[in-house]
Specification:
This protein has about 350 residues and is α/β, with parallel strands linked by helices. Helix content is about 35%, strand content about 25%. It has two domains: about 150 residues, Rossmann fold (3-Layer(aba) Sandwich); about 190 residues, Dihydrodipicolinate Reductase, domain 2 (2-Layer Sandwich). The strands form three sheets. Strands 7, 8, 9, 10, 11, 12, 13, 14, 17 and 18 form a ten-stranded mixed sheet that branches. It has a six-stranded parallel sheet with strand order 3-2-1-4-5-6, sandwiched between helices. It comes from Artemisia annua (Sweet wormwood).
């Protein structure tokens, strides 16, 4: 029997990323794997057996059966982006809390439909941007907010690329226009945009312009792109995302007094520790042969991986609604919407050949 004190998760689909989240749910002290649903009962059964689902877990041959199970408290939705509106809305209507893979939708209009359904049904909504739940993110935020050590943010550059193999570039859902039409922009680009907004304390830019050199596959899906963002106060940010370059996931943020650098912001090099470097009032040595002072390294330890911390935070919010009558936390869906809104602007600029897009 599942622990009644834990949030009972159902998973919709057997996507590769669902393996990671299944482990995260198992590791979380507030959650338990309760059900898995796939369009194929055989596939769901195999997924459960190969991902350490408890013997008591329910195995269903449809997504609907998971949503119709009265004991499922929350669902994780790792389905292709084109299916998010349908299944996230149905989940909300069934009073299931929703942990939604990114990108949350194909555009902000679709996400607003999801958001409206969740608000009307009083369920928690959170996207699956795992790195924000690592304690390293909190420590970096403290540095960026320190007027004496970092000052005012002036510029930010972020990169998330990985060299996809031929099978991925031909067959993965992220290269299919009918499944994940945003391609790399919705995948690794989501993380870049989120990190930029995070550094800017989630203030939206005034304008967005796609950088030259966007690469599409033969189906018209974006394989590589970048953009520049500008705020009314003059700060700027750029990002580059690609399926065609070696694994890189870096952030460089420069302030009036300091700078921050991180080389593994989406997935840390090591699961239980993560580092970043900071510099304040940097300069050169007398003969310009080195830095003075040298940037300092900071390492943050964690007992649980960031994805389990995300599941735990989501489950904490769900428990407060379920047991204490609390209302759903609006912070997380607000951040999701802002990220999607900027993605939309980048996509519009790409579609218009690099025209500047003004955000309202």
């Amino acid at each position: 029997m599942s622990d009644p004190q834990k949030i009972r998760f159902g998973i919709l689909g057997c996507a590769e990323i669902a393996r990671k989240l299944s482990r995260a749910i198992t590791l979380s002290p507030l959650a338990t794997l309760y059900a898995i649903g796939s369009r194929s009962l055989q596939k769901a059964t195999l997924f459960a057996s190969s991902n350490n689902f408890p013997p008591s877990a329910k195995i269903y041959g449809s997504y609907e059966d998971v949503l119709n199970d009265p004991n499922v408290d929350a669902v994780y939705v790792p389905l292709p982006t084109s299916l998010h509106v349908k299944w996230a809305v149905l989940a909300a209507e069934k009073k299931k809390h929703v942990l939604l893979e990114k990108p949350v939708a194909l555009n902000v209009g679709e996400f607003d439909v999801i958001l409206d359904a969740c608000e009307k049904n009083g369920v928690q909504l959170m996207d699956s941007t795992m790195w924000m739940h690592h304690p390293r993110a909190t420590k970096m935020r403290e540095f960026l907010s320190d007027a004496h050590k970092f000052g005012e943010l002036k510029s930010m550059h972020t990169v998330f690329t990985f060299g996809a193999d031929p099978d991925f570039l031909e067959n993965d859902i992220r290269v299919k226009p009918d499944l994940d039409a945003l391609g790399v922009l919705g995948d690794t680009g989501w993380y870049c945009v989120r990190s930029i907004l995070w550094a800017a304390d989630f203030s939206l830019p005034k304008s967005v312009i796609a950088l030259p050199g966007t690469i599409f596959n033969k189906a018209g899906v974006i394989m590589s792109c970048g953009a520049a963002l500008q705020w009314e106060d003059g700060k700027i940010a750029t990002f580059h995302c690609s399926f065609l370059a070696n694994l890189t996931m870096s952030i460089t943020a420069s302030g009036t007094k300091g700078s921050l650098h991180i080389s593994d912001f989406v997935v840390p090099f090591e699961e239980k520790q993560a580092s970043f470097s900071t510099a304040t009032e940097s300069g050169f040595t007398e003969l310009v042969t080195g830095w003075a002072p040298v940037p300092s390294q900071h390492t943050v330890m964690t007992d649980l991986p960031q994805e389990a911390l995300m599941v735990t935070e989501f489950s904490r919010l769900v428990k407060s609604i379920k047991n204490d009558g609390a209302v759903a936390e609006k912070k997380w869906p607000t951040l999701s919407r802002k990220t999607q809104y900027v993605l939309d602007a980048v996509k519009t600029s790409i579609d218009k050949g690099g025209e500047s897009v003004i955000l309202n």
